[in-house]
Inverse folding.
C-alpha cells in the first residue's frame, strides 16, 4: 500500500486520518524515519512538504492526550523529571534509569526521555538558545566541513523558529534586550517567545549576575554566551502553551495537508539491509495489556533515517549489526559495519544547586497554600499568564570559572579544560524560583514551611566525563543500559566543587541586594570542606537531560566516528542518523535549537539532490 497517494476523499478534500499509517500493515515509502521526536518530526515534515513520500515511526502517541496539561503548561514542566528513578509517566516517557553511578553519586537516576510525538521537545524545559561561534567552529573542523560552522548553520537555526520579541511593558523592574537579527521574520514553525509574566526572582538574579561580572548581553542566540541574558522559550505566544516539534512541525503540516505518514504507538525494532544497503525497518505495532503485538515491515526506496535520540539511535544501530563487532558478537548479533564508536562518547550536562529562602513569591507560594495554587491555575486559564506561564525565571548566566576559584583547580584540570575554545563557558547558572533540594522536581521538593525558596543551579557545560549506551539484550523491547558516567573525570569533580564556592559568592550578592535570607537552606553550613562539598554534590546532582554524541559525526579516521559530515553511517548505504546522537560535540547549553537546525540542514540537502 502506498499511503502517499491515498490522501483525497471523494469530495477532493484530504482526510487528516490518511496521514496516519496502519500499524501492522506492510507499506513502502521513499524515506522511513525512525523516531517522531525533535529531529525526526522536523526532517520528516520538511521532506513531506517537498512532496517526498515519507513515513515516520514513533513509539509514543500524542502527549496532549497522554499527559493532560502537564506536558503543555510551562509551569508544570518539571513533573516526572528529577532524579527519582521510579518517577516517570509511561505514556510519555521511556522510564529509563541510569546504572548506579560511581562515587560520589552512588545512585541510579531516572533519565527523562520523551516517548511521544515531539519526543524530548515535548518534555523539555523550553530554553531556546544557540551554541557559541567557536564551539561550532570546533564542530566543523572535527567533521572536516565548514558548512557546520556558526555562520553557515545560522540560516537553518533561523528557518526552524518563529521569534516573538519580549513585551517590553512587562519588564518594569528588569530589561530584556534581544538581538533581532538572530531571527528571521519568515521563520518557523517552532515558536520561540517569552513568558506572559516576568518572574520576580529572575529580576534579582539578573542584578546578581551583573554584579558578579556576567554583564547582560542581547539574548543567547547570536553565537555569544559569556555574560547573562533572558533565554527565548519554546512557548507559543498565542496561547502560552508548549511549542514542540509535534505542535509546530507536525501540526502545521497536517493543517496544510502536506504531512508525513505517521505510525504512532509503533516501535522500530531493527533496520533491514540488502548487503550493506538499508532497505527498510522491522516494526512492532504496540500490544499492551495482554493484547499480542503485530510485526510488520516498512520498506524505504531511498533512505532510512534514524532519529530515535541519543539512547535508542545507538541501540538500534547495534541491534541492526552496526557497532563494535566483538561486542555485538556477545549478543549473537551479526556485524555489517565495525564502528566501535556506536554507544560511546556520551556527553551530558550534570547540574546541582543550593537554596535560600527569598523575599519574593516563588513556586513555594503555591506549594504552601492550596488557595494560592488554585488562583494560579485560574490566572493561567483566564489569561495564559501568571507564574504557571513561566518556566524558571528565564534569566541565565554563563562564565568560565573565574578567580579565585580557578586557582583551586589542579594544573591537570586546567590543561584538560583547554580543549574548549575561549568563548565556550564552563558553567551555566540556572536560577529556579523553587526549592530543588535533592530532587529537581519542584512539585515534590519544597519543605512547605511557609517560606518562599529559590535555588541557584550550576550546570557543567564544558564536561570532560563521557558515558556509554549499551545493550541489555538483542531485543528492541528491552531498554538500553545508560551510564552517563557523570563526574568520572577529575576536572569535572574539581570544577563542580569550585563552582559551588562561586555559587555561595553569588548568593552573598543576593543577600546584599536584600532579596535572599542570609542562612543557606540547602545544603546548609555543615558543608564546608572540599570533601564535604563533593559528597553533597554527589548526593544532590542530577542532569539537564542533554545526552548527545553516541553516534558521533566525524572524519573516517576518528576511531569513535559513526557518521560522516552528511550524517551518513560509515560503510553503509542509505542510512543516516539525524538527532542529538550524531553531534560530534555537545555545544554549551541547551541542544534543541541545534537538533532543529541539524534536521533542517540535512532535509535541505536531500531536497536539493531530489
Ligand atoms: C526533561 C528535559 C528537559 C530538557 N530541557 C531542555 C531545554 O530547556 N532546552 C533544550 O534545548 N533542550 C532541553 N532538553 C534536551 C532536548 O529536549 C533534547 O536534546 C532534544 O529534544 C533531543 O532531540 P532528539 O531528536 O535527539 O531526540 P528525541 O526528541 O528524544 O526524539 C527521539 C524520538 O524517538 C522515539 N523513539 C526512540 N526509539 C524508538 C523506536 N525504537 N521506535 C520508535 N520510536 C522510537 C522516541 O519516543 C522519541 O520520540 C531537555 C530534555 C529533557 C528530557
Amino acid at each position: 500500500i502506498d499511503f502517499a497517494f491515498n490522501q483525497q476523499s471523494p469530495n477532493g478534500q484530504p482526510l487528516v486520518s490518511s496521514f496516519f499509517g496502519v500499524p501492522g500493515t506492510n507499506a513502502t515509502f521513499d524515506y522511513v524515519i525512525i523516531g517522531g521526536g525533535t529531529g525526526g518530526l522536523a526532517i520528516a515534515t520538511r521532506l513531506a512538504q517537498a512532496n517526498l513520500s515519507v513515513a515516520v515511526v514513533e513509539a509514543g502517541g500524542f502527549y496532549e492526550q497522554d499527559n493532560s496539561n502537564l506536558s503543555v503548561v510551562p509551569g508544570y514542566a518539571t513533573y516526572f523529571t528529577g532524579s527519582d528513578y521510579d518517577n516517570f509517566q509511561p505514556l510519555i516517557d521511556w522510564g529509563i534509569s541510569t546504572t548506579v553511578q560511581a562515587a560520589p553519586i552512588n545512585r541510579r537516576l531516572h533519565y527523562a526521555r520523551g516517548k511521544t510525538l515531539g519526543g524530548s521537545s515535548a518534555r523539555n524545559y523550553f530554553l531556546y538558545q544557540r551554541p557559541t561561534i567557536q564551539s561550532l567552529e570546533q564542530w566543523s573542523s572535527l567533521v572536516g566541513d565548514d558548512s557546520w560552522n556558526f555562520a553557515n548553520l545560522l540560516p537553518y537555526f533561523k528557518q526552524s523558529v518563529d521569534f516573538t520579541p519580549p513585551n517590553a511593558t512587562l519588564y518594569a523592574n528588569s530589561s530584556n534586550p534581544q538581538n533581532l537579527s538572530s531571527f528571521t521574520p519568515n521563520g518557523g514553525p517552532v515558536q520561540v517567545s517569552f513568558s506572559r509574566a516576568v518572574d520576580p526572582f529572575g529580576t534579582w538574579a539578573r542584578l546578581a549576575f551583573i554584579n558578579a561580572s556576567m554583564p547582560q548581553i542581547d539574548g543567547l542566540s547570536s553565537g555569544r554566551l559569556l555574560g547573562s541574558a533572558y533565554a527565548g522559550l519554546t512557548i507559543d505566544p498565542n496561547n502560552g502553551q508548549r511549542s514542540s516539534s509535534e505542535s509546530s512541525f507536525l501540526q502545521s503540516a497536517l493543517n496544510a495537508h502536506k504531512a508525513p505518514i505517521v505510525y504512532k504507538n509503533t516501535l522500530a525494532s531493527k533496520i533491514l539491509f540488502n548487503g550493506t544497503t538499508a532497505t527498510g525497518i522491522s516494526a512492532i505495532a504496540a500490544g499492551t495489556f495482554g493484547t499480542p503485538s503485530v510485526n510488520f515491515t516498512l520498506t524505504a526506496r531511498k533512505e532510512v533515517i534514524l532519529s530515535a535520540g541519543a539512547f535508542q539511535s545507538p541501540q538500534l544501530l547495534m541491534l541492526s549489526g552496526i557497532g563494535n563487532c566483538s561486542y555485538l558478537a556477545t549478543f549473537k548479533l551479526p556485524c555489517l559495519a565495525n564502528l566501535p564508536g556506536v554507544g560511546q562518547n556520551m556527553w551530558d550536562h550534570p547540574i546541582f544547586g543550593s537554596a535560600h529562602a527569598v523575599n519574593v513569591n516563588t513556586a513555594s507560594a503555591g506549594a504552601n497554600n492550596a488557595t494560592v495554587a488554585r488562583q494560579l491555575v485560574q490566572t493561567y486559564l483566564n489569561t495564559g499568564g501568571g507564574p504557571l506561564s513561566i518556566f524558571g525565571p528565564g534569566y541565565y548566566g554563563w562564565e568560565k570559572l573565574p578567580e579565585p576559584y580557578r586557582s583551586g583547580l589542579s594544573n591537570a584540570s586546567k590543561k584538560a579544560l583547554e580543549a574548549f575554545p575561549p568563548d565556550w563557558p564552563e558553567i551555566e547558572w540556572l536560577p529556579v524560583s523553587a526549592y530543588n533540594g535533592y530532587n529537581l522536581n519542584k512539585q515534590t521538593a519544597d519543605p512547605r514551611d511557609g517560606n518562599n525558596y529559590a535555588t541557584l543551579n550550576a550546570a557543567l557545560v564544558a564536561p570532560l566525563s563521557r558515558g556509554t549506551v549499551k545493550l541489555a539484550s538483542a531485543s528492541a523491547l528491552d531498554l538500553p543500559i545508560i551510564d552517563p558516567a557523570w563526574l568520572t573525570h577529575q576536572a569535572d569533580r574539581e570544577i563542580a566543587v569550585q563552582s559551588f564556592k562561586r555559587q555561595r559568592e553569588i548568593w552573598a550578592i543576593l543577600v546584599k541586594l536584600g532579596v535572599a535570607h542570609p542562612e543557606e537552606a540547602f545544603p546548609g553550613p555543615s558543608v564546608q570542606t572540599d570533601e564535604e562539598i563533593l559528597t553533597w554534590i554527589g548526593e544532590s546532582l542530577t542532569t539537564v537531560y542533554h545526552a548527545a554524541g553516541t553516534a558521533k559525526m566525524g572524519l573516517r579516521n576518528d576511531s569513535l566516528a559513526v557518521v560522516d559530515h552528511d550524517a551518513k553511517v560509515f560503510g553503509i548505504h542509505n542510512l543516516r542518523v539525524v538527532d542529538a546522537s550524531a553531534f560530534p560535540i555537545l555545544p554549551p547549553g541547551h541542544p534543541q535549537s541545534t537538533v532543529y537546525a541539524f534536521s533542517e540542514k540535512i532535509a535541505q540537502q536531500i531536497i536539493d539532490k531530489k
The mean pLDDT is 95. The CA atoms of residues 85 and 109 lie 5 Å apart. The two ends are 23 Å apart (CA to CA).
